[in-house]
Amino acid sequence: xxxDYLWDKSGEPDPEVQRLEQLLGTLRYQEKPLExxxxxxPSRSTNHVFLLAIxxxxxxxxxxxxxxxxxxxxxxxxxxxxxxxxxPSTPEPQKDAASPDxxxxxxxxxxxxxxxxxxxxxxxxxxxTKPALSPKEQDEALAAKQQLMLALRLASEKxxxxxxRAVGPTTPIKNQHKVG
Amino acid sequence: MYELEAxxxxxxxxxxxxxxxxxxxxxxxxxxxxxxxxxGDRDGFGQLYSLYGPLIHGILLARVPRSEVDxxxxxxxxxxxxxxxxxxxxxxxxPWIAMIARNRATDFHxxxxxxxxxxxxxxxxxxxxxxxxEILEIVKxxxxxxxxTLILRLVEGMTGPEIAIRTGLTxxxxxxxxxxxxxxxxxxxxxxxxx
Lengths: 180, 195
Description:
The structure holds two protein chains of two kinds.
Chain A: H1 3-8, H2 15-24, H3 45-83, H4 92-98, H5 100-106, H6 122-126, H7 135-167
Helix pairs in contact in A: 3-7
Chain B: H1 2-25, H2 29-38, H3 42-61, H4 66-82, H5 93-112, H6 119-122, H7 127-140, H8 144-154, H9 160-167, H10 171-194
Helix pairs in contact in B: 2-3, 3-4, 3-5, 3-8, 4-5, 8-10, 9-10
């Protein structure tokens, strides 16, 4: 069998292939005008909806984060107030001298002598004390948390909806790139 | 006959235009045409229809009764036009629409079950068409992988490299399918003529 002719019609023609070409060629495609209804257009609306939904989700997340940060910001001064009475007017070097054990715990041992004079980290000093929130602040914090959770839930719902719309209802086209 | 020649001319011109386009802009013609169609240019989609009509016709001819093929070709292109915005890789328009056609053919059989009268196909207008339809039925009895490639080659007159480009198959696969399919077809035809 002349494989080249069958492959790309080059080389010596294979008589049997030619005979089949002639016979089956009578069934060849005959183009008819394509009737595309005027009202149908390949819209790109899905992409716009998708982008809009992403933008809305990001905006909501930012608002929620802002609310959460605000609630947290209100909480921080209360923490500092809670710590302040323990050493209200003592200068820092004296504080270090007054509590050498605490400094040892706070600052890791180091070979550099200069670092040992560093101030103790304020955050470490705060750790043992639990911030005392007033009932009003607790309510605010709880409300902020609930708002954040609600925003996240809404964002999740919106993303799911967008995904459903983008994918479409049971599309018959699967693995468009997996051919052969 | 005139229509046949015209179709062949369009096909040849399209492939030549394709080569020119690729050499000048280095962008596949499918990408340009899909972009045009998405921008609302219906002629762009019309060119895709002319370019890929034979492929879809061949794919359907390998799977559904001949009397149904023309309507299905139109349906498939209409569906593709509606869903064109879902095509991510514009250069893969061929494999994408080929997959739509294969799925539509499967769907056709699922819906029609046994109600399709295959005998409609065998009734030809003249002897050569009747003989062609008989041979087509033999080709359609071959395994899936061979019949589609053989029909694209023998009925639609596409070459192996063209089939590979349009369907997204590798040239090696197409060549093997053509060779083995033709061998099987010749065996079946000789058996039939021997009876």
